[in-house]
Amino acid sequence: MSLRFPYLSIVIPVLNEATELPRSLQGLRASPGVEIVFVDGGSQDGSLEFLQRAGQTVLQSQRGRARQMNLGARRARGRFLLFLHADSVLDEGCLEGLEMCMQDPRIVGGAFRLKIRSHARALRIIEWGVRMRSCLMRMPYGDQGLFVRREAFWTLGGYRDLPIMEDLDLVRRMKTQGRLTMRPERITTSDRRWKQNGVLRTSLLNILLATLFFLRVPVHSLAGLHQGLSDSAHGKAPSQRDPSATEANADRAQGESSKTSPSQQVSAHERVL
C-alpha cells in the first residue's frame, strides 16, 4: 500500500512508566510511514530521561492523560491517530490491520482485541468479557489502543479534559462520525491494575463506573468514587491518599468545567524535548 509519510501517528502518554517503557519500545518496531510521539506528564522516575536517551520524540505537558494525548495529537502528522498506553504493546499484524481500515471511508476508527500479560485463568475470562463488550456494544476502552481518523478527532474537539472516562467519552462521540471497527489483532497490556486491586474488585469497579458514566453521573464524582474505592482496597484512609494523585484529579476536574477547547488548554504548557 502506497501512502504519503506519515500515514499513522502513535501517541503515547507517559507518567512514571520507567519499568514499562523498555518493553514498549521493543514492541514499536520501525515501520515506514509511522511516527511515534511520547508525551510526558511530569514523570519523576526517569521516564523522560530514558526516552531522550533512546532518541524518541518527547513532548512535555501538564499531567492528565486527556491533556497529554491532545498535545500529542496536535503535534502528530499522521492521517490516522493511534492512542497507546505506555504499558501496552502492539502484537504483530496490528499496523497492517489498521492500514486495511484506512481504505474504508465508512470507518472512523476503532480498537484492537485485548490480551492481558498474565497466566492467570481469571484474566482469560476478563479478556472474553472485553471482547464481548467491544463486539456487541462497540465500546472499547483506552487500553485496547483506540485509533481514529485525524480529521474526525479534531471535528469532535479531541479528548475532553476529564479526570476519568476520557476514552469512553471519545468513543461515544466517534460513533456520530462513522463506523467503529474491532480489529482481531491483539494488543497486550500489563496486568498491574488487576494485581494491585484484585481481579474481581477491578472488574466490578470498571462496570460500576461505566454504568454511572452512561447514566450521566458527573465525571468528577466518578473520579472521587474511583479514588475512594481504590484507597479502600489498599486500606488507606482519605488522609493517606497520594497527594500527586489527588492533585492530578483536581487539575483534570477543573479542566472538565473549562470552556476552552482541548487544543487551547494544553498550548500554554507544552514543551518539546
According to CATH, the fold-level topology of the domain at 8-188 is Spore Coat Polysaccharide Biosynthesis Protein SpsA, Chain A
Helix content: 40-55%
- Assembly classification: single chain
Major pleated sheet = 9 strands, mixed
Q: Helical region count?
A: 12
**Cα end-to-end separation:** 33 Å
Structural class: alpha/beta
Compute the CA-based radius of gyration: 18 Å
Nearest-integer average pLDDT: 85
* Shape verdict: globular
Strand order in the largest sheet:
5-8-6-7-4-1-2-3-9
Order of helices and strands: EHEHEHEEHEHEHHEHHHHHE
Quick one: CATH class of the domain at 8-188? Alpha Beta
CATH superfamily of the domain at 8-188: Spore Coat Polysaccharide Biosynthesis Protein SpsA, Chain A
* Unreliable segments of 5+ consecutive residues: 239-269
Q: Give me the count of strands.
A: 9
CATH architecture of the domain at 8-188: Alpha-Beta Complex
Instruction: Estimate what percentage of residues fall within beta strands.
Output: 15-25%
How does this model look, in words?
This protein has 273 residues and is of the alpha/beta class. The protein has a domain at 8-188: Spore Coat Polysaccharide Biosynthesis Protein SpsA, Chain A. It contains 12 helices and 9 strands. A 9-stranded mixed sheet has the order 5-8-6-7-4-1-2-3-9, sandwiched between helices. Helix 1 (21-27) links the parallel strand 1 and strand 2. The longest helix has 17 residues, at 121-137. Mean pLDDT is 85; it is low at 239-269.
